[in-house]
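Re: that backbone. Tokens:
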């Protein structure tokens, strides 16, 4: 019995062969990236590179598919790799426990990938990732902001220069223009962000952040699933 038979009914044998021979890199395995990996693994992608140096924390459990009480403290890349192998043991999985930053960018040979998913948080890292993908001629899709939002129906797929209503997308538009990046496929939300309630937390602030965004289970997950769907459709030419 073929575990992908229901997908094959929709896409056909030729498309399934394309997916089986495709190698996709997912940078960032949080609320968005984790769900993207989940859907890609269940859709027949033959090889996945999973890149993240972070470990699962208790506060990830409310929204990240890789986060459970049994995975707290483990590397997200390792948890994701184990989950993919459990979903489909035939997938070639490579876990990279590294933060993608300008100083680590040269660790990756982008020419070996058929598609790249950008689900990382830092603007500097995103811009470097996009630049490397463009230079290598590899398609990339980038996730914009999902924090402080509650409407999963507000997501849109667009070119970065056609986005509106997203603070991160506005910054990325400006920086892409500076770097001569004239096209970039993104998933972004048109919803105006909410203001988080002033409740206390003992969670440490990431470097460069003044406050923590609120988040929930049903917003970043939708962004991740949309991203996976776009990757699949682009690979098979739908």
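Recovered sequence:
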């Amino acid at each position: 019995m073929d575990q992908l038979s229901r997908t094959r009914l929709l896409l056909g044998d030729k498309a399934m062969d394309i997916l089986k021979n495709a190698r996709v890199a997912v940078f960032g395995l949080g609320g968005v990236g984790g769900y993207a990996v989940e859907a890609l693994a269940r859709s027949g992608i033959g090889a996945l590179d999973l890149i993240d140096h972070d470990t699962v924390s208790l506060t990830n459990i409310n929204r990240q598919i890789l986060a459970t009480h049994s995975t707290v403290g483990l590397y997200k890349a390792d948890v994701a790799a184990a989950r993919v192998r459990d979903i489909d043991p035939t997938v070639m999985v490579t876990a990279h426990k590294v933060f993608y930053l300008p100083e680590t960018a040269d660790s990756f040979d982008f020419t070996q990938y058929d598609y790249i998913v950008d689900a990382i948080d830092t603007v500097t890292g995103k811009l470097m990732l996009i630049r490397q993908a463009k230079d290598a001629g590899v398609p990339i899709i980038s996730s914009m902001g999902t924090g402080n939002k509650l409407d999963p129906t507000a997501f849109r797929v667009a070119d970065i220069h056609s986005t509106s209503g997203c603070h991160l997308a506005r910054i990325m538009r400006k920086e892409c223009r500076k770097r001569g990046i004239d096209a970039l496929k993104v998933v972004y939300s048109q919803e105006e962000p909410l203001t988080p309630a002033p409740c206390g937390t003992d969670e440490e602030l990431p470097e460069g952040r003044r406050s923590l965004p609120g988040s929930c289970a049903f917003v970043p997950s939708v962004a991740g699933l949309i991203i996976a769907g776009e990757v699949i459709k682009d690979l098979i030419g739908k």
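The chain is about 35% helix and 15% strand. Residues 205 and 212 are 7 Å apart (CA to CA).
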